[in-house]
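Students often ask why we bother encoding 3D structure as a string. The short answer is that it lets us treat folding as translation between two languages. Here is a chain of 257 residues written in the first language.
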Amino acid sequence: MVESDFVPYRATTTLARGPVLVLAPHPDDEVIGCGGAILQHVDQGDAVTVVLATDGAAAMPDGDTADRESYRTIRLAESRSAAKVLGYSELITWQVEDRQLQGWPGLDSRLSAAITDLRPTTLYAPGIYEIHPDHHALAEAVCRTAGVLPPKLNLMFYAVGCPAPVNLLLDITQGLARKREALRCFASQLAIQDYPRHVEALNTYRTYTLPSHVVAAEGYLALTAAELATNPLSCYGRSRLTDRIRANQVRTAGVAQ
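And here it is in the second language, the structure alphabet:
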């Protein structure tokens, strides 16, 4: 094995064509995690649908006099404003209570129904390494349902809170200014944290192996549903450990036969 087995040394500027479904745990994750990819798909003429899984209301600052419903409305309005900047028009809300996605009984069926209805060629979702329980819940749902998803469905796992292993880099240099503008739409969240600085730091870090003219990149773990269904460990990215475990499984299966 060589370094290129673990880190992609080039960044693409094009993505698979066709309808796109983006799973965002909260309003703003669609921009933080894959805003550059959304821009690329829109520029390619692909139809993009974003699902906001939770209402994002748990981020309401302590002591805020606004009730939960008002805060939910604010966060949804911010995602709608960001959608205009990015150029996509379809925004769906599941309105699950923030931080309650883990264990929500309707999650798998809701995901399967969305894929059946929208028939995407590419699905974006948070990666399995994500720390926030809502992020992790969406990643787990994609992994659990991989066996019943269309085998050729492209799965693109993105990072928000953890710079996880990736096998695809997307050059977002040309769209960086628009991604910044979309991030500025989330005023309620920028009052809590300097997310644009964090996001740009991650997008800059992803250019470490790339030519100097690439100033920002998004990293993805790209798999097909068939690959994930065949090898569930692939959601953790390729590594010496997962390769060794997979080889062990193959050997064990051969002995059993």
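Translate back mentally: The first strand starts at residue 11 and ends at 12. Keep this in mind for the problem set.
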